[in-house]
Amino acid sequence: MAFLLKYYTFSAKIRTLSEFQIRLSTNQQPPSNAEIITTLRYFQQTLIGFLKDFPATQTNYCEKFSSDAARWNLYPNLNYSALYYAIVNLLDVFPLITIQPQAIGEAILDTIKALMIFLERDSLEQLPLLLASQLGVFPRELDKQIVHLLADCVFPFAINEETYVKLSVPGVLMLVLQQTHDPSLHTWIVESAMNSSQGVYQDLLQVIAKGTCESRVAAANLLFHYWPFPNPQILHRKTIQYRVHAWRTIQCQSAGCSDKSPSVKRCYDPVICADVADTSPPIFLCRKCAEQVTGERKVVTQHIAQPMPASNATCQRVECQSQSRLAVTICCSHECTRGHNHVPMRLCMDCSTLVHEEGTIKHLQHQGSGVVWSTDDQWPTVESIVKLLRETTMFEGSEGEGKKPKWLRQLDGGTSMGKEIDKMADERRMLSRFGVWLMAGLCPPNESADPRAIGYIMQNVFEWFATTALLPSDSMGASLEQLKTDFVSDWINIGMRVHNQVFISSLCGECEEHDGRPVIDRIKEGLGRLLALMPYDVVSVETWSRVMPRWLEAIVNDCTEDNQPELKVLLCKIFEPDLCPLPFETAEVYGFMTDRIGGDDYDEMFNALQWLHQLSRLDITIPLPMILDNFNRCLQKLRSIEIPPLSENDLEEEEMSVHVVLVDTLVLQMKLNDAEKTMTPVLIDKLFECMQLLVSIPIRAVPHSCHDPELDGFADCQQCQQTAFVQQMVMNITQKVCPKREVAIITTVDEDAIYDDQTSDTPTAPGSSMLSPLTESGSKGTSPGTSAPSKPFPDNLQTQTMCVAQACEQEEEVEECEFVGILPCEEMEVAMAEAVTHDNVLETGQVVTSTTVHPSIKGQIVQTPQTPVQKQPPSDFWITSVGRFRFSFEQLPPQLKMIHSLLACLDVAVEPDVEFFVMSSIKYLCLHCEALSNARREHRGFLIWTQENQMVPKLWERLRSDYIQVGELATHLLLHAMTLPQGEEMFWKMVHRDFTSPQWNVRFDAVGKAYVLAQMIKTAPVKANKVVQTCLASVFYHFIASLHDPNPSVAQRAIIALRAMPSHTLKLICMCFESQFDHCIVDRPLIIHAITMMSILLPDQTTLTFDFFIQRFETLVLESQLSSQTEENIFVQDLMHTDPMSELYQRKVSKARTAIENAATARSIVRHLKQYDGMKHQLAHLPSDPGTRPTPFYSPQIFTYRHVWHDGDVVDGYQKPHYQHVSKF
């Protein structure tokens, strides 16, 4: 009956305790402190009463937990588990108790101490963590009581082979080390764990590896305190903020003790515990009370393990004679401690072996692990090292705070972000040193090391390098830097030598865990690690060449456009010559790219170019000479290697061509290197060489799709887009390096050739556009051999030419004389592309001849054989209209090669924009750099060949009216080409070929070309250049003559085009006609006819003026007198009766005499019409048919004209003629 009463009462109290929890959590009639304490005291006293009933011989069940069934018969079978969970529930709402929480906390702890002996194993195994978790919840005043309960009661009772409480020791250690700030409590819990269980060393490693940051600080210090390393720098390390303190035993718990001295013994007798201290076992007594209890009650007491000294790391055995007295083992067994005042004894390796080798009882020893490879401690140790190294990274979350002085960080710590001052900030900053020491001592990178573990450590060591580089340069920063020299550098060098592949993989980030972080963050960390290692001579050239390509490839392939600028600072520090900390030259820094660029693998080459392009986009300056050399090698190699075609995937991804990447890189680097100010002539030549190779190699892209009706033209044509971009960049580069000022378009006269004594005494006016190659030295049709210096040549190089320049009055004589004169003359090769021509005989290497004029026969050409010269038959002859020239494109100057390649690009250009960019580049080379003008002497052969085969024909074809920007450039370049050797001749050929073509569509296009030429031409270069005036007069005559073209479409287009021309263009046409009228006697009827047709079709425009006729009449009068001049009458008179001695008179006579003398050799439209078999409407008014009138072809109108003179109209003493236009139907 008494048992039932106890049972119901006990159960009722448990329900009451549970109700307290509900009332506190819901805040409905919360219980008072007295109610809670009274209920807890009831349970405590009830449980103590049950313990007092234990038999005196069964007190051993109070010392150690036992699952023996006999234990359950010693006390009533009540619901102890329900009481335990009721207390657990009460602990959940303990933070809600605001009044006298300390008293309630003490009552809870006393109840738990009494309940501990009655708990089952499952509940007992939860108890250590339950108590430790109350640290930080209970008032700080109870921290020592909680640790005492754990260290002196729970651990000794619960840790044995029958329970799994040992597994909770790391968690308890972590909670105690984290939540308590008294270092003595830390040593208390650690040493009590040593006295109760094995493997505390491993438990501390677990705390370091998996614990919190706060617990890791204490755990690392305690680990090195109890198990020191045999290194003076570690043994004599300077304490930062955390100092190990020895703990003190609890005061005597006897109620009658007046001294309250530290306890030295404990007693497990329940009766003694209840009588002396009114508590459950065990009770802790001082020496005096223990002796009193033992003497009076005759009970057995046990010695308590005393605290270990905090500053002793040597062997404590008195008889120790070892040379190395460093303590490596701690023995907590009674056999060893009883002779050492019950203090756990530190032993060196020799003493530990000597003391424990003969013992029959296994002692409770705690020893470090040593080298951990292939042991159970391997991964806990590796993880501990990694977490310690990462402490620096975690602490440096804010780089700005880390660089502040210590006093300022402490001053701002509590106010800047609303946080408390971190008292362990400096300790945490230096916590990585323990990781370095563990790594150097326990994880050497030898052959037996686990490659995975080495890679894991290496990765975090590299990260540690990067993080410590951001620390302030104070004493702590200097200490960490010293660690790199003393420990880490040697460890890395050994690891690099033994585990090279792991080392490379770690630097490349392959060992990283893909934890879902953005790719850009991983790349930034990897580059930061690499940068931090560079100053320590860890990164060799070989390592650099293997690591950096992988990072650059990741940047190009994995980073988005928005993220790449975030890498700018890091890559600048790595690659910029002024910032790069690598111990080798700039050429070696970029060596891995250089090797790939010049290699035979297209993919490797393209990747290297993309890397350079990416660096350039991030504003990283690369030496321009190195860039140009590499690009030249790359482009040369592209000519010989096989470029793989694009696949379907490439089309979807729109892969860029090598040309695009290369030219964009070049543009960016020129901007970064400030090329406009720093370019030297040698560097400019390399640049042109590079661009010439660039434009000469076909772009790797899909065929043109711009004409596909299903696509959007240029927008969907990859070939057009990439080609346009490349040519535009080439144009921009050319513009930057060429002179800003454009040269004037003038006709440059070659140096005078050596003439025979029998040549005409009449001087040739320099720059005269009407002189044929027979009379003008160095004119556009002249053989290269005629352009010679004024001084005589050596005998073997002498070239003599004789020109026949006679004024022929009859057309037949003019026609016979036009192409008589110079034949290809022979000249020995002096230079690569010397302007020389060769006879057919030269190819056999038998005879060299020179062309001379016989001294007695004027105009007769003879060839004088000279000494035979044996030569190898050349293979690089190029045929032109003036002879054969020998030159090689590979040996030409870069500017000429680039012009040749650009002109070749016009053949394959489909998009007008591409043509515009190409022609703009040619314009800069020709009109700003004067490349073709400067080639007139040394590379005359190439110049003539280019003029005849590329320059003039292609420019003439691009006088387009549908894309006027192309036509404008073509016009400008054509004017320049006319002034160069063979330019005038070739232009005449193109004009007469198209306008006299039997195909109407060719003539139709020719009319359009003439219209574009007239519209786009500028007046200034035409006024100052007779050659240009002559060429334009030819094309404008054909344009006017096309008004009578037999095809209505051609004629109609000519009429529309003529009427659409503005006034200034019509004036320019008239000016060219007047110039041709003055210089070519044979063409005068055609010119008059052309001007007349203009005046008829454009009656509102002033084309025929009195000034034109009055000036020409006077010239005709003088020419007539000079033609009929005899020896008796040598005086001629002009219409103005000018003084014969005046300068004006002499100028008029000289102009008339020149026109007569040049009549046979001047460029003539008439001759070309006959030569090219002009059409009927073009030959209507030739001088041989003076009475022929123009025949209508395109309309029923017949245009005629007549001159009507009105008497009385006198101007300057002469009558002024008036013209009337009469139309007949």
UniProtKB/TrEMBL annotation:
Q: Which SUPFAM superfamilies is this protein grouped with?
A: ARM repeat
- In residue numbers, the region (Disordered) covers 756-794
List the InterPro entries. Answer: ARM-type_fold, UNC79
Superkingdom field: Eukaryota
Q: What is this protein called?
A: Uncharacterized protein
Q: Which organism is it from?
A: Caenorhabditis nigoni
Biased composition (Polar residues) is annotated at 760-789
